[in-house]
Every structure is written in structure tokens, then in C-alpha cells.
Amino acid sequence: MSPSQDERGGGIVIAIDGPSGSGKSSTSRGVARRLGLRYLDTGAQYRALTWWMLEHGVETTDADAVAAASLLPQLASATDPDGYGITVDGRVLVDEIRSAEVDAAVSKVAGVHAVRTRLIEAQRECVRSAVAEGPGIVVEGRDIAEVVWPIAPTKVYLTADQAVRAARREAEHAGAGRGREAAVTLAELARRDAEDAKTTRPLDAAPGAVVVDGTHLTLDEVVEEIVGLAKGR
Ligand code: DC
Question: What is the pTM of this model?
């Protein structure tokens, strides 16, 4: 169920949306640490469900098959910004959800209505408990400010030039021992942007969101800017 205005409570909710490679995860964890908040990576949930489907031989391009399997795995998201991780049927997943196979399949899985219904409700429950227990949570994804928690007092759309986003993704891949040509990463990023745009609006800011362009900023500068927004500076 969508959150009502009564659910604003005393907790802080910071919604950070943005496309692939915009630096959302590092930024969101940094903001959560600075403000002593919890942290939820919603992309990791879509990735974990996709990983499970691939492991169980579900044809991820078949929307009916994905919908039929969407409720089967048990998912639990950790919300500690220093101990982030997602558990699927009791198994903690870290690098598995960042594989090339998951990268290639996740947009299609995330486009299936039953998947979104399940995960959006789980995300709202997570925000509800963080707000109820205080002090609050940073939630990152694609549709947080517009769909998951439209009453978030702080909404940020984090972006960067596509070439810069591709370079950051490339650095992550190289760090994980999966280095490849920059042009391949750029093409893959453009494909993901286009595929994600069928479901969410990865290249547009939600109404009421402040646009933060990280193209020429360091991670610390982006974190500082968002902390300032949350504090009303
Ligand atoms: O941010 P990411 O690359 O980890 O996201 C993985 C995929 O999940 C991406 O293709 C878009 C999708 N996603 C989504 O549809 N809605 C969200 N709130 C978060 C991610």
C-alpha cells in the first residue's frame, strides 16, 4: 500500500534515484553513515531475484515464467550501511548479484509487474520499520521518490554524464577482475538505460527531486551536498 501522509512520523527518509553508474550506492552509504541512518539498496533486491531465477533455470525473458516464480524465493535485505548484503533463501549474496549474467538479465526481470509489486511492498515495509524505530533510512533506486516513498522529505536525483558513468562502471569491473574495453561498457550502459526506461524513468528526476550532477564532483562532495539538503542547508 502507498504510504499515507500520516506515515511521515519523526524518521528521516532520503530517497536517492538515478541511472546505472551514477554513484548511487557509494553516495547513499556515505550519506547514511554521516547521518547515522539505515541504508536500503533496492537494485540489489532486483538483482538477487534475478540471480535466483538464473540459478533455478527460469527463462528470464519470459514474463509469465518470471511472474510465476516471483514469490518463491525468501529475500531479506540488511540495512546496515557498513554491512550491506542481501540474503536469498538463507544464502548471503555479495559478488554473485554483480555478475555479467545478472547485469544482462536484470532489466527484463525488473520490468515484470509481479516482481515490482512484491519488491515495492517489501521496500515500503523496510522504510516503515526504519521510520517507526528511528532515526530513518536512505533508500536508493530508480522509482523511490515517485513510487516507493513519495512522501520522502528529501528527494535526490543523482546523475552524471554517460561517459563518466561508464568509466565508473569500468573501474568497478576492473576491480572485480572483469576488465573489458571501455566502448563495450559504454554500449552496455546505454542498453541498460534504454531497457530500464521501459519500466522506470532512470534519466528523469521525479517531481520535487533535487538534481545533483556528480560529473565533476568527488564522492565526498556529493555526500556533503546531500547531507546539506537533508539538513535543510
Ligand atoms: O541500481 P542497479 O544497477 O543495481 O539496479 C539493477 C536493476 O534493477 C536495474 O536494471 C534497474 C532495476 N531497478 C528498478 O527497476 N527499480 C529500482 N528501484 C532499483 C533498480
Answer: 0.94
